[in-house]
Known about the structure:
Blueprint lengths: L8 H26 L5 H19 L3 H18 L5 H20 L4 H10 L7 H30 L3 H4 L5 H21 L2 H18 L3 H25 L4 H10 L6 H6 L3
Helix pairs in contact: 1-6, 1-8, 1-9, 1-10, 2-3, 2-4, 2-5, 2-8, 2-9, 3-8, 4-5, 6-8, 8-9, 9-10, 9-11, 10-11
Amino acid sequence: xxxxxxxxxxxxxxxxxxxxxxxxxxxxxxxxxxxxxxxxxxxxxxxxxxxxxxxxxxxxxxxxxxxxxxxxxxxxxxxxxxxxxxxxxxxxxxxxxxxxxxxxxxxxxxxxxxxxxxxxxxxxxxxxxxxxxxxxxxxxxxxxxxxxxxxxxxxxxxxxxxxxxxxxxxxxxxxxxxxxxxxxxxxxxxxxxxxxxxxxxxxxxxxxxxxxxxxxxxxxxxxxxxxxxxxxxxxxxxxxxxxxxxxxxxxxxxxxxxxxxxxxx
Length: 265
């Protein structure tokens, strides 16, 4: 089979959809790991999946109900004084349960929830690509502006309170950006693959790099490399994209062992 099959018109749009999402999700994933909120991406993806099933009985677009559901949860978390991975863990459990219960009691719900949990990148359209490019634009413009504020909130959590400075100016835009990315990733890639590409590259990069900028760059680089390999293997060998991507990302884990070799004794 021709090695350039990924550029076939049938796969061209899905390929670039996934590539754009890989860049955006891995960059956001690095910031989530920096803030020790890396589990939030998976929790919101489960809520988005549950919200997507609601589109059927309500007669609304899946993207709309998924966005509203994830956005509502993100807003609640944003209003709380402190949120950690325990909250996100409970959200994962409840979101997953809600998605399956709604699917079991909704006509064609099982089809929708399976597509959202497993992903449907091969069937993504030009509209997904446009939304992904908008997301990437926001990532490139908003994240650099938010970066110093997010880092200050992480390493000096009392700074804003001590100076009587509101935190919603940076927390709300970042939360909305995460919701936008997670919902698009869930709809196109699936809940688990979208979480994996936001989690694994940053998890590896943070132990290999000493500086923040280097870690951010490496996380995106690893995500893009894993995506290219995963997509190519899935197409060439007629395999489902989501599990293939997760397996390829899992193969990055041994790279963390290089950190012990580079550290002075």
